[in-house]
Amino acid sequence: xxxxxxxxxxxxxxxxxxxxxxxxxxxxxxxxxxxxxxxxxxxxxxxxxxxxxxxxxxxxxxxxxxxxxxxxxxxxxxxxxxxxxxxxxxxxxxxxxxxxxxxxxxxxxxxxxxxxxxxxxxxxxxxxxxxxxxxxxxxxxxxxxxxxxxxxxxxxxxxxxxxxxxxxxxxxxxxxxxxxxxxxxxxxxxxxxxxxxxxxxxxxxxxxxxxxxxxxxxxxxxxxxxxxxxxxxxxxxxxxxxxxxxxxxxxxxxxxxxxxxxxxxxxxxxxxxxxxxxxxxxxxxxxxxxxxxxxxxxxxxxxxxxxxxxxxxxxxxxxxxxxxxxxxxxxxxxxxxxxxxxxxxxxxxxxxxxxxxxxxxxxxxxxxxxxxxxxxxxxxxxxxxxxxxxxxxxxxxxxxxxxxxxxxxxxxxxxxxxxxxxxxxxxxxxxxxxxxxxxxxxxxxxxxxxxxxxxxxxxxxxxxxxxxxxxxxxxxxxxxxxxxxxxxxxxxxxxx
Amino acid sequence: xxxxxxxxxxxxxxxxxxxxxxxxxxxxxxxxxxxxxxxxxxxxxxxxxxxxxxxxxxxxxxxxxxxxxxxxxxxxxxxxxxxxxxxxxxxxxxxxxxxxxxxxxxxxxxxxxxxxxxxxxxxxxxxxxxxxxxxxxxxxxxxxxxxxxxxxxxxx
Lengths: 496, 156
Known about the structure:
The complex is a heterodimer of chains A (496) and B (156).
Chain A lengths: L8 H25 L3 H12 L12 H21 L3 H4 L3 H27 L3 H10 L5 H10 L8 H11 L1 H16 L5 H32 L7 H19 L4 H13 L6 H26 L2 H6 L1 H23 L7 H9 L5 H13 L4 H29 L25 E6 L11 H4 L6 E7 L2 E3 L12 E6 L4 H8 L9
Antiparallel strand pairs in A: 1-4, 2-3, 2-4
Helix pairs in contact in A: 1-2, 1-13, 2-13, 3-11, 3-12, 3-13, 3-17, 5-6, 5-8, 5-9, 5-15, 6-9, 7-8, 9-10, 9-17, 10-11, 10-12, 11-12, 15-16, 15-18, 17-18
Chain B lengths: L2 H4 L5 E5 L4 H10 L10 H14 L3 E3 L2 E2 L2 E4 L6 E11 L9 E10 L3 H14 L3 H9 L3 H16 L2
Parallel strand pairs in B: 1-5, 3-6, 4-6
Antiparallel strand pairs in B: 2-3, 5-6
Helix pairs in contact in B: 2-3
């Protein structure tokens, strides 16, 4: 075991920041090449590593695991936070099926395949299967959201919900397999009760902390806006820690907490969504860079043969088997199921999970790690890259909606019975030369912005109106006539 | 964004037909028929009339600025017209309208829309400029007037 060498902090910060910046710049290129970004981040990590041009020696599995877990917590939370419950509700049972039974079937079939073909013991095979059994939320979200892809019906919601919720099962199976191998003390029945306990406690904690967080955000009147993200960060970490220590699934808990929070109304929600989007990106980049550093490419190349076989089996047999069996009662057609099978992108979770046996000191753990690494690379490369094409081939894609960012946006939301309306101050209106407070506009209306000549003015109550000003007014449908009446008041002596 | 950038000769008329507000509105919208930026003229019409319902865009002094936002256009589109006869536009000062500036913006592109509206309403508030436009003989002359006026007024 290597202890952490005493590297000066300024060196760590310099190298870390350079790697992150490099990743971002190269991510820009990857977008035009259509490559999944995670591959590039891993590649940069590998290049920076001891076998690449960077020459950084890093083999601290424990540190990598910690970084991986922390990163996953926030990626999962951000994923849940950004998921609309209304859009995933119709697919919730299918997703739960895929995240439990589907994952289990994938793990089992990979286990049988490897023990049959490569002489792994059944438990070792099952361990490998468990490690690679979950699809990656970060990869799936990235492929479905950032790439030019638009899907018909509810497949997208199903895939996002599945990828966000199936990691706890993979974690559970992996840890269970390791326990069976090392101690042999757990009975199959024990595993089932353990499973129910873990998931139950996980969901419970997620629901609880999610609600408490929303309540706290709304009730505590914090003076500093900057505190809000800090508070949520702490809540997320608390959720994971508390759920895990009480025997629940921490990953499931943070995902559920994210779902609860993301689907509630609270102050600062928009800025928090943005913050966590950014934080999830940082987590992803940091995690993949670390994993890229941790691996030794020459060792991965050594297991290429088996890796390729397992990878192909996973993509074309194990995953489709899990999907088709689990969804056999769903109303989705075979095209949908085939597409869902293909978006079985593996990502960071398998690699992080592959560190577990390493730390447990299982024999052959290094080999397993390298094998998993190779499987993830091939899945990300082949499946990640081809998702848009496969969507088109299976005819599950929908026409793209143009997306644009605008300086001022407003979308009527539930609970806001108002809309933005523009008014032009008539040349002869009595409001000319008066301030906004003097107008006596209805209580529930707000002058948001004034266009004057070539400028925007963010008005205050004292802003004096001029003729020809364009007012952007937030008003409810009921108060519109009153706003109109106010502005339409014409100075009588000006009549011509 | 400048008015003269978005206003082209082909979308300008010096003798717009119509006796009622509805007729002139339809005529000025029809000027945009040939525009490649418009995906669905009926949707544009709908948006313009919808906005007119909230409050007349006849801002006074014989000028009206019908406008609206819709996803049926790919970019901001403009048309300008001098009507052949004065038309009652339910303007606030009661003065019949002879000058019409039509502005159609993309849904959600609130910023540029607001800027252009305020710029147009500012320019049209000048008595001499309105007089000049009323005497214009051709579409190209009107576009030129806008160009000159923008330069002298906004110093660009």
